[in-house]
Amino acid sequence: MRALILNGSARPIGSTGNIVGDIIEELEKGGVETLHVPLYEYHFTPCNACRTCEMRGDGMCADQTDGTNEILDVMRQADIIILAAPGYAGGMPGLMKLFLEKAAFILAKGDRGLHGKYGAVVTVAEHDGADATYNELVYWMLHSEMLVIGSYPLTSFKTGFDDYRKDVFGMKGLKNLISHILEISDKE
């Protein structure tokens, strides 16, 4: 089983990136092949609703230069997609929003390439925004016809920079989420 983690944080080092590192370590211990794609390495162009993806129907964006098509191809090859993001100003970071807006249109109008894939969400925010970001990302997965893996407590961390391990509920949720992913991996 292959898992893909899209990291929507603008920072290479921080709570989101450290949580992603923990997820990778635990999934790989459990035999899940894991790939991490940090979105901060890309410069996405906004979707201009040209509808070329709809006309072509091949699940590809007409813009071949910003990495969107390459990431979508990797997403189509994954069995599980984990979206990890901090909460910024009460929602997901702009870079992740830019990519997901574009991807949603391409997938819906093109090949519905994530239909039936498993998805999970991890968010973190120092004050407000983790839960709103969590809900946005789960909605995006549902819109993309994915099967969302939940956990209790939710993997929505409320913590300051690099203090995520002190969030008892977030860590319990992360442990449960990883356990659920490994259960699915064993069944596949």
Distance between the termini: 7 Å
Which structural class best describes the helix and strand composition?
Answer: alpha/beta
* The top level CATH class name: Alpha Beta
Helix content: 40-55%
Q: Which sheet architecture does the biggest sheet show?
A: 6 strands, parallel
Q: Which whole number gives the mean pLDDT?
A: 93
Computed CA radius of gyration, to the nearest angstrom: 16 Å
Outline type: globular
CATH level 4 superfamily: Flavodoxin domain
How many independent structural domains?
1
Strand content: 15-25%
By CATH, the topology is Rossmann fold
What's the count of strands?
6
Q: Tally the helices: what do you get? A: 6
CATH architecture: 3-Layer(aba) Sandwich
> Would you list the SSEs in sequence order as H and E?
EHEHHEHEHEEH
Poorly predicted ranges (pLDDT <50, ≥5 residues)? Answer: none
